[in-house]
């Protein structure tokens, strides 16, 4: 951490962005993935144009509650990046997007829908064209591919040139690799201050049960520092199926590989600094809990500013790139998008706590609680 949470700077939209480069309209974007608010693309540039090696482009969707990327980037630089050691952050920069490119990609999204290649829950929502001029360039955490295989000699040969190989990746996304990318959201690694005395479930596990969602790891286990509890949590994070492009050592099955990956992640979580940083931040940014903060109202603006920062940190994504040869686990934190508290969010956050307490999910007394068998430890 490079600055105290007591001196968080409120970001404004008045940063000097005259130096921000423009993405050439000739850049080819390849749809990679999308979430509720953004779409992620790979970039490919023609010879002689600016190149963007090891970077992805994130463009925002047209949502009423979404911040323009210029303001979101200012918050990222002034509010959230100072909270974490720089080496844990996903490198991010701002780039200007030509309107023609946004229009072109919206046409492409509609074509994906027509072909049934876009997730059903994302259909009907497109990139913001009118009120957005910028996008985010973010570090590509995709697994590094193995050198190209010469099938005529059955030998491994290096790629002919970095530029050509980078362009080939846009068309060959499943090249063989000895690395694995794992993404997860740690969520509430400190129990909510609004939870009732005698709680038996953490906020995250209680909320999942109230929504009848699939059981997953308990954040309190992940942040406990206890090897057995961390191992139980990590078991939910390691993929159940072997990725199609992941090459295992000769004679090793996926079950054995899973065990090796789990143990490497356990060591990373227990011995590394990331979980400790998250636990500390959750406690410092939100010492009162959603119900108390909502009751304070606008008279406690400093408390409310810290609380929305806490909600942002609770929704960040951890990206882990695991190398099966070296054993190295490279970790980066991303998706630090400010939660504003607008559009009824203050009442919603407090209301969620009220529901979890009143309907018995925190204390584990709702109907069928014993059969569910989901209990959390401090």
Automatic annotation (TrEMBL):
Supply the enzyme class, top level.
transferase
Protein name per its UniProtKB record: Inositol-pentakisphosphate 2-kinase
Q: Which UniProt keywords apply?
A: ATP-binding, Kinase, Nucleotide-binding, Transferase
Q: Give a GO biological-process term.
A: inositol phosphate biosynthetic process
Q: Does Transferase appear among the keywords?
A: yes
Query: Record's family?
Result: Belongs to the IPK1 type 1 family.
Comment text on domains = The EXKPK motif is conserved in inositol-pentakisphosphate 2-kinases of both family 1 and 2.
> Would the keyword Transferase be found if you checked this record's keyword annotation?
yes
A molecular function annotated in GO for this UniProt entry is:
inositol-1,3,4,5,6-pentakisphosphate 2-kinase activity
EC annotation? 2.7.1.158
What does the protein in this record do?
Phosphorylates Ins(1,3,4,5,6)P5 at position 2 to form Ins(1,2,3,4,5,6)P6 (InsP6 or phytate).
Q: Which PANTHER family match?
A: INOSITOL POLYPHOSPHATE KINASE 1 (PTHR14456), INOSITOL-PENTAKISPHOSPHATE 2-KINASE (PTHR14456:SF2)
Q: Can you tell which superkingdom this protein's organism belongs to?
A: Eukaryota
Q: Which reaction does it catalyse?
A: 1D-myo-inositol 1,3,4,5,6-pentakisphosphate + ATP = 1D-myo-inositol hexakisphosphate + ADP + H(+)
**InterPro entries in the record, alphabetically?**
Ins_P5_2-kin
GO CC terms of this entry: nucleus
């Amino acid at each position: 951490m490079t600055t105290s949470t007591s001196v968080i700077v409120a970001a404004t939209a008045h940063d000097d962005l005259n130096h921000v480069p423009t993405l050439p309209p000739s850049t080819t974007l390849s749809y990679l993935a999308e979430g509720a608010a953004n779409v992620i693309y790979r970039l490919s540039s023609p010879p002689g144009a600016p190149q963007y090696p090891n970077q992805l482009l994130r463009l925002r969707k047209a949502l009423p509650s979404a911040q323009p990327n210029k303001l979101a980037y200012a918050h990222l630089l002034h509010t959230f990046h100072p909270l974490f050691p720089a080496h844990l952050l996903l490198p991010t920069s701002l780039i200007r997007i030509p309107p023609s490119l946004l229009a072109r990609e919206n046409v492409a999204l509609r074509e994906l829908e027509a072909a049934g290649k876009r997730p059903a829950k994302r259909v009907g929502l497109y990139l913001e064209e009118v009120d957005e001029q910028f996008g985010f360039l973010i570090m590509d955490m995709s697994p590094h591919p193995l050198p190209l295989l010469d099938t005529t000699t059955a030998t491994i040969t290096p790629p002919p040139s970095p530029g050509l190989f980078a362009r080939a990746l846009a068309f060959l996304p499943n090249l063989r690799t000895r690395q694995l990318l794992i993404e997860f959201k740690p969520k509430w690694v400190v129990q909510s201050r609004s939870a009732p005395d005698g709680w038996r479930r953490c906020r995250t596990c209680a909320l999942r049960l109230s929504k009848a969602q699939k059981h997953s790891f308990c954040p309190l286990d992940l942040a406990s520092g206890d090897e057995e509890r961390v191992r139980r949590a990590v078991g939910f994070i390691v993929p159940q199926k072997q990725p199609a492009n992941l090459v295992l050592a000769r004679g090793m099955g996926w079950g054995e590989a899973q065990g090796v990956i789990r143990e490497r992640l356990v060591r990373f979580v227990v011995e590394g600094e990331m979980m400790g940083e998250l636990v500390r931040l959750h406690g410092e940014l939100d010492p009162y809990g959603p119900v108390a903060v909502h009751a304070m109202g606008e008279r406690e603006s400093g408390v409310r500013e810290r609380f929305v920062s806490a909600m942002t940190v609770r929704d960040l994504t951890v990206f882990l790139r695991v190398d099966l040869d070296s054993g190295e686990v490279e970790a980066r934190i991303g998706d630090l998008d400010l939660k504003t508290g607008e559009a009824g969010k203050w009442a919603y956050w407090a209301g969620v706590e009220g529901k979890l307490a009143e309907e018995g999910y925190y204390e584990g007394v709702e109907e069928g609680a014993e059969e569910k068998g989901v209990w959390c430890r401090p």
